Every structure is written in C-alpha cells, then in structure tokens.
Amino acid sequence: MECPRWIANSCKNTVEALSPGQSGFNTVFKVPGSEAISEVVPDPAGNEVALTMAPCLSTHGTTGLFVRGLISGRRRAIATSDNPCDGYGPTAWNQAGTELAFFLDRADGRPITMAGGFGCPTGRDYLALAPINAGSAPTKLTLIRPDRGCLFRAVAFDTEGIVADEGCNRHSPPNQGGAHLGQAVLVQYSPHGHVLTRKLLELGLEDSIIATEPRTGDVLVTQDQPANSGYKERDWVWEFDGRHLRPVANYASEDADQILAIPW
After folding, report:
1. pLDDT digits (tens, 9 = 90+) for 115-148
2. Do the beta carbons of residue 188 and residue 239 sit within 8 Å?
3. How many angstroms separate the CA atoms of 246 and 248, rounded?
4. For labelling, which of 72, 86, 210, 249 has a CA lying 20 to 30 Å from the CA of 2?
C-alpha cells in the first residue's frame, strides 16, 4: 500500500444497467483501461449518457465531461482539460435532453506529488450550463459562480430553469469554518443563469441530492447535515415546486446515513 506499482492499462471500466424486474446487471459498454470513468448519467430518452473521464493512474492526459451514444458508441466532448486535477460532475439533463448542468472545479495548479500517488490543490468552483450540440462544434459553456464562501453540492433542472444548492461558511459554529458547516441555500436559476429565488435550508450541508419529477418539474432535495458541527445532525428531505419550499421529513443521523431523493 505504501509503494504501489503502477501498471499501464490496469483500470477496468464497465458501465452496467439494472432494469426493474431483472435480477442481474447488463453490460452497457466498456472503456479502455487507460482511462477511468465515473458519474455516468443517462439522458431522459435513454439514448446517450453523460460521463466524466480522466487518465488512469497518470498525471498526464485529457480529463473532462463527455456525452456518449449508447448505440453508436460515438463520444463528443462537452468540457475538457489537460489538468487531471480539474473536476467535473455530478451532471443533470434537462427533460428534452438538449442541455446539461454540471459542476466544474478548475484547480489552481497542477497535481502535487505525494507518497503513493498525487494530490490536487484547491480551485475555483462553478455551475456550468452546456447545450448539447448534434455536431462536432465546440460547446459554449455558461459559468455561474456560487456566493462568496459557498460551494455547490447538487443540481437539477426544474420548470423554470436550474435548481442548485450551496453549502456556505456564513453562520458557521463559533471557532469553526467550512463551506459545509454554515448556511445552506437552495438557489433557483433561469435558463440563462440569473438568480430567480433563494430558499434557506437547515444549517449545514455536507452532502445533497436533487431529483426532478418528470411530469411536474417539482424537485425533491435531500440535505445531509455534517457531523461534529456543534449542532444536532439530521437528514432532511424537502420538496420545491418552483415557488415554495416545504420540509417533507427529517431523520436522526443514526437512523439513516443518507436519505435519497428519487423521481416519483
């Protein structure tokens, strides 16, 4: 573990699907071992997937967000970089399958050599909006910065545009600081990235998931409050109909590690 031996093409990347009523997984596609994939999200029609790709066990190569056709296998880039410390995703599709929203983390520097691998410096956090081009033309991104002292945690589309939540360091407990310890906010953006409304969640946002109900555009929001934060930790579920935010349920942290919001 302290002195690993890196082997070329040693990553094994297989995307699998499990359909309702099936007892086992079906292989959808495989990716060569020189690349590592993650954050695979299908479009609403089930024809394409958005996925992130990065060099496997290497500090050189292209990392980024791509869209891949499930039948053709053709892949086109949405956003790429030659810095493996840049981060992409998680990703959300709009209902028409014509636009992506995802988080983009541009690292302020190259990888830092560490024992057994490499580390990455902190960077600049964005919410990126990307139209899906049918051809090979470069994708023009709309970049949105979070409020000062905040980080984006989850994103989804609703009927008005985009909904994302932020964890902030404002109102953190005394003598503590961190973007996940203080104020938590649900922000609704227009399709062009303008703020429409902001709704306060409970204090603290360590992890979150946002899921859209396809027929109405309403969203479910989960909020996982951080442990050891100076206040009582709970898991929350909220419903947002585009205008009003209401709590659906909350659970003591020992009752559930993470409550998942899924389309209903």
Report:
1. 556 677 677 889 999 998 766 556 788 999 999 8
2. no
3. 6
4. 86
What's the start-to-end Cα distance of the chain, in Å? Answer: 43
Residues in the chain: 264
Other CB atoms within a 10 A radius of the CB of residue 43 amount to 19
Which H or E run contains 38? strand 35-42
Within 10 Å of residue 145's Cβ, how many Cβ atoms? 12
**Which two tokens mark 139?**
């994708």
Q: Please state the φ and ψ torsions of residue 239, each to the nearest 5 degrees.
A: -120, 135
Could you give the 3-state DSSP secondary structure of residue 156? Answer: strand
3-class DSSP state of 75: strand
User: Which of 126-135, 166-175, 186-195 has the weakest average pLDDT?
Assistant: 126-135
Identify the residue whose tokens are 């960077």: 123
Q: Taking Cα atoms as reference points, which of 184, 186, 124 lies closest to residue 155?
A: 186
Q: Contact, 101 vs 155, CB < 8 A? A: yes
- 9 is written with which tokens? 């093409």
Strand order in the sheet with 142-144: 87-93, 99-107, 123-131, 142-144
Tell me the pTM: 0.84
Integer CA distances (angstroms), 225 to 96, 120, 187, 202, 248, in order: 33, 26, 18, 8, 16
CA gap 123, 48 in Å, rounded: 30
